[in-house]
Design goal:
This protein has helices at 2-22, 56-66, 138-191, 195-211, 216-220, 223-237, 249-253, 287-305, 312-331, 338-359, 378-388, 400-431; strands spanning 257-259, 390-392. It has 432 residues and is mainly alpha-helical.
């Protein structure tokens, strides 16, 4: 549109030059006085009611296009504020003195005319405002920009501060969680028994079980005997003495002893190193392993008789024969009844304990009488076992009756010692 206006302005200016030349007064005539030209106001913001355009030629062009300053709805309108209402295309500058601007002012108008005059009346827009564009002066733009920057900076600082607060809250929650974990751990430790308390409870349960008719298998394995022995040694250490319960020499000869740090048991070698095989292991399928073990056990016993430890090759062969016997027993389990299999397994275990005893450097003590049970009564036997640091080893099949008799003697001594301990306690309380 600006190009068309420029072309139109050039044509109109050319026409004006021709008209001016035609109407020039002849020589000798007085020139006609021209109306004074209004000065162009260079700052349209300084005078909102100014009629001249922002540019010098705009006012003249506007007058030519509108044909008459007071003609309402004339022509396309000027490019600058006109004197008549509803003029032209509309202005490019603010005009508060002339309502109903043309095609649509680029700035604010207090009685805006939408698309404005030019095409007639208030033009296509009438009194509508949807064609108006809003502009701001540089000062307003500067101040608004400063305000936006200030608000953005304030929002940034606020966000950073809030983030720091949230982070501190997270740290505090972490500390509280850690404190809760520590308090829970302390609570559990306070209510959890220590290993010694657990051990003492286990020993108490074991002595209670040993006192009340334990199974024969636990008696023959030495478990019940050792539970009673442990309790009696502790009572003797506190100065408590029980009743006199006699023991026979035949019973003590059949009792197998062992050191506290080993499961060795030479009870199977009491018959000069000759093994007494149980009936389940006398089957033909076990013949090779049985004969090999018997031969090497006899060799090892002969070495111990002269206070010499068995050589390493003999012990290694014994260990190999024992593994072969165990494998053969597992392979022929279907040929044995359950009772026979249990009896055979028990004897194989005793053979393993015998091999372990032969490996002990103190194996000679099992045969020279140093680790043979002594005592005329239970009290003396308990004292001997405590002094030597010995415990009861499992019984061999031929020793089972002696183990049962010894159990009842120990149980009677324990019951009498408990009565003596209670009597002593009642006497001490009566003296107070």
């Amino acid at each position: 549109m600006s190009v068309s206006v420029r072309r139109l302005s050039a044509v109109v200016l050319g026409g004006l030059v021709l008209v001016g030349a035609a109407t020039r007064p002849s020589v000798g005539q007085q020139p006609t006085a021209r109306p004074p030209v209004q000065a162009v106001n260079p700052n349209i913001y300084a005078n909102p009611a100014a009629t001249p355009g922002r540019f010098a030629n705009t006012a003249v062009l506007g007058k030519a296009l509108q044909n008459a300053p007071g003609n309402a709805g004339a022509g396309y309108g000027s490019l600058a504020p006109g004197g008549a209402p509803d003029t032209g295309y509309g202005t490019l500058a603010a005009s508060y003195a002339n309502p109903g601007q043309g095609y649509g002012s680029l700035v604010n108008s207090n009685n805006g005319g939408g698309y404005g005059g030019g095409y007639g009346g208030y033009g296509m827009g009438g009194f509508g405002f949807y064609g108006t564009q809003w502009m701001m002066n540089p000062y307003e733009g500067y101040l608004r920009g400063v305000a936006d920057v200030t608000n953005a900076n304030a929002q940034y600082q606020l966000t950073i501060s809030q983030a720091k607060i949230v982070r501190q809250q997270a740290v505090q929650e972490s500390i509280r969680t850690r404190r809760a974990w520590l308090e829970q751990a302390e609570y559990e430790r306070a209510h959890m028994p220590d290993p010694e308390q657990i051990r003492q409870r286990a020993l108490q349960r074991e002595i209670d079980r040993a006192r009340v008719s334990p199974p024969l298998t636990e008696i023959w394995s030495g478990r019940s005997l050792n539970a009673l022995l442990r309790h009696l040694i502790a009572q003797q250490g506190q100065g408590v003495r029980g009743p006199r319960v006699p023991l026979s020499e035949d019973t003590l000869k059949s009792i197998n002893l062992t050191a506290g740090d080993t499961r060795g048991n030479v009870g199977l070698l009491k018959d000069n190193g000759k093994l007494q095989w149980p009936q389940p292991l006398q089957h033909e399928v076990f013949k090779d392993a049985r004969e090999s073990l018997s031969r090497r056990m006899k060799q090892a016993f002969s070495s111990v008789q002269v206070n010499q430890s068995p050589d390493e090759s003999t012990l290694s062969d014994l260990q190999g024969d024992l593994k072969n016997l165990q494998a053969s027993l597992d392979a022929n389990i279907s040929a044995l009844s359950p009772d026979q299999y249990v009896e055979a397994r028990r004897y194989v275990k005793l053979l393993g304990n015998t091999v372990s005893a032969l490996k002990d450097r103190n194996v000679s003590n099992y045969f020279n009488g140093a680790w043979t049970a002594h005592g005329k009564n239970v009290g003396e036997l308990v004292q001997f076992m405590r002094d030597k640091g010995l415990w009861f080893a499992p019984a061999t099949p031929s020793d089972e009756p002696a183990y049962t008799a010894l159990y009842y003697a120990l149980a009677a001594y324990d019951a009498g010692m408990s009565r003596v301990a209670r009597s002593s306690s009642d006497t001490a309380e009566g003296d107070k």
